[in-house]
Amino acid sequence: MPVTAIVPDYESYVEIRDVQKNFHGNILVFVHWEQHLSFCSAIAFPLPPTMPFDALVSDVIAPHYAAHPDAAKIDWTKAVWSIDGEIATPDFNASLVENGLHHKSLIRFWTPGLPGIAYS
Amino acid sequence: MSVKKLGLRQRYEHMTRGLDWETSYQPMDKVFPYDQFEGIKIKDWSAWEDPFRLTMDSYWKFQAEKERKLYAVLDSFAQNNGQTNISDARYINAVKLFLTGISPEEYQAHRGFAFAGRHLRGAGTRVAAQMQSIDELRHLQTQVHTISHYNKFFDGLGEFPHMHDRVWYLSVPKSFFDDARSAGPFEFMIAIGFAFEYLLTNLLFVPFMSGAAYNGDMSTVTFGFSAQSDESRHMTLGIEVIKFLLEQHPDNLPIVQKWVDKWFWRGHRLLGLVAMMMDYMLPKKVMSWKEAWDIYFVEAGGSLFQDLGRYGLKMPKYADIATEEAEHISHQNWAVFYQYTHAAAFHTWMPDAEHLDWLSAKYPNTFDKYYRPRWEMWAKMEKEGKRFYNGALPQLCQCCQIPMAYTEPGDPTTICFRSSKYKDDTYHFCSDGCKDIFDAEPEKFSQAWLPVHQIFQGNCGGPTVPDVLNWYHLNNGVDNMDYVGSPDEKIWNEWHAENTRKAV
Questions:
Q1: Dist. CA B452–CA A45, nearest whole Å
Q2: Beta bridge mates, B418
Q3: How many domains does chain B have?
Q4: Segment B256-260 mean pLDDT
Q5: DSSP summary character for residue A27
Q6: CA–CA distance, B406 with A2 (Å, rounded to integer)
Q7: How far is B423 from chain A (nearest CA, A)?
Q8: Residue B440 and residue A1: Cβ atoms within 8 Å?
Q9: Are B327 and B363 in contact (CB under 8 A)?
Q10: Rounded to the nearest 5 degrees, what angle is found at the Cα of B124, between the Cα atoms of B121 and B127?
């Protein structure tokens, strides 16, 4: 349904601020550790699309969740992943793009056996 | 010949509608270019019932009298060092949230009503909107004057206009009003006049003004009283607007219903900040957010919509979801600010034992199960010297711009994720309510200035947190972080140590 505007060509004035080219070669990726609501929401990162998935895990995801008491116990080989709403088995040696990620993709992961502290 | 004095009503008619005329040099549609594109049909502007018959001269007289009283109280508050008699310096953080998050919106409301007061065709409607416009400007001014006294002693207040345009969580109220003000005049009147100033107003003003009264902040209470008669005028205007639009033409109903749905949900999201203030930031509590929601929305809102049912208007969409969220929203928001305390212009803390028990008693269905364990874990980490911070930036909702911290309806253990595609890009939302608003006008909301994304694009002073705080004019290590260890706490303790010495 189109916007209700006083000008007929509203769309020609639209400036989308978050298009990929504004991120200096990076894509935006959102990451969320399920059942660990101490982290109040998913967290956001601008990342090179060529970054290998295992670097995403070891250099981005792991350090940012390290403050949680469960973090040290994560076995990444057992983690369950979802990319943009689909359960996925990421190839850790392949890049983000090769794993199907795009600008503003959402990665959610579960760590079986680590249900947080009452989901926190 | 003796001149007869006009009656009040006659006088009012002359001073408002009597000053209006049909233009002849220019067609009326060119003089009032904004009041048709929204699709609202008005058959008879003169059917507008003026909810209050106030003329400009009596308006000035009345307001000036209230100002004299307010400023007399402010003077005596300052002379008596009223700031030392508040319940606790933690309370000032509620005042900081008010000045940075609400007062600039008084100004936005002033601008919006000035626009409506120019662009609506009916003279009665225009006069009412113009008076509200002046009220809103006066509210901003008196709030700034009232709170300026605290600025001499406490941090986080001095840069409020600058912060409003830049700080991540202040983009929530800012974008709310930007949305309303960039809509047409009728949507603005429903958004702010009806949804905000009528339906939800008690949930904003009662918590802050009662909070001030309970916590010894006599100056803010007095401001509240001085605004009260304005607020009741605004409420009457809000209800008159909706009735007028619904009575004018049956085609208006679906448009008005869509706006009511939208602005109820946007208002509910915005008021989550008030919910957090009420449950967490008031040293002396008024009532819980859940209780306030039940009284002012479930009961009062329920009977309002029963009344409006005769026009065919229904309860706002997702009202049931909002009521379910009233059990959670204050806790979820406080969790956001606690972990991002380094980027907030007010102080945070974990509730003490007494406060935890109050929360358990007020939220028997949810607090002990979902939130107490988190607070206890964080308090323990704090004791061990490992105070919990979130070192990354949060994913924001494209519509309300709040971190996506809200949980699935019916499942408080799972974050609610929603998304839409628009022109090959993905947009993320915290709820069905926010997704629906985007989907109705993706052209508008795809342009959102999301603070987190702006930081990544390099538009906010630099890549590090101190760079961004500097760009916010947020005094790092002073305005932000926990209350314990803050300069606010230090000055408060000094005042009270002095009192104890004197007493001995």
A1: 10
A2: B429
A3: 1
A4: 98
A5: E
A6: 28
A7: 10
A8: yes
A9: yes
A10: 95
B94-123 core/surface letters (b: 16 or more CB in 10 A; e: else): bbbbbbbbbbbbbbbbbebbbbbbebbbbb
| A28/B453 Cβ within 8 A | yes
The domain spanning residue B150 has which CATH number? 1.10.620.20
Q: Is residue B1 part of a domain?
A: no
Give me the total of CB pairs closer than 8 Å, taking one residue from chain A and one from chain B: 145
Q: Which residue has the tokens 């890049």?
A: A95
Q: Position A93: which residue type?
A: N
Judge: B425–A104 Cβ closer than 8 Å, yes or no.
yes
* B467 token code pair: 């760079």
DSSP A110: E
For the segment B127-141, what is each residue's pLDDT rounded down to a tens digit? 999 999 999 999 999
- Flag whether pLDDT at B52 surpasses 80: no
DSSP labels for B388-453?
Answer: ----SEEPB-TTT-SBS-PEETTEEEEE--EEEEETTEEEEESSHHHHHHHHH-HHHHTT---HHH
User: Region B460-474: what's the mean pLDDT?
Assistant: 97
Amino acid at B425: D
CA distances (Å), origin B237, targets B32, B115, B128, B303, B439: 21, 16, 7, 18, 30
pLDDT in tens, B202-215: 999 888 999 999 99
State the residue range of the domain holding B253.
8-35+53-347+478-503
Q: Report the alpha-carbon distance of residue B344 to residue B167 in Å, rounded.
A: 8
Structural domain contains residue B393: no
pLDDT range class, residue B19, cuts 50, 70, 90: confident
Q: Are A30 and A43 in contact (CB under 8 A)?
A: yes
Contact A13, A22 (CB under 8 A): no
3-state secondary structure of B71: helix
Interface predicted TM-score of the whole assembly (ipTM), two decimals: 0.98
Domain layout of chain A by residue ranges: 21-110
Query: Is 60 exceeded by the pLDDT of residue A1?
Result: no
Measured in whole angstroms, how far is the alpha carbon of residue B207 from the centre of its chain? 11
What architecture is the A21-110 domain classified under in CATH? Roll (3.10)
Angular region, A24: left φ>0, alpha ψ -120 to 50, beta rest:
left
Residue B342 belongs to some domain of the structure: yes
> Do the Cβ atoms of B446 and A16 come within 8 Å?
yes
Is 0.95 topped by the overall pTM?
yes
B376 token code pair: 């206890």
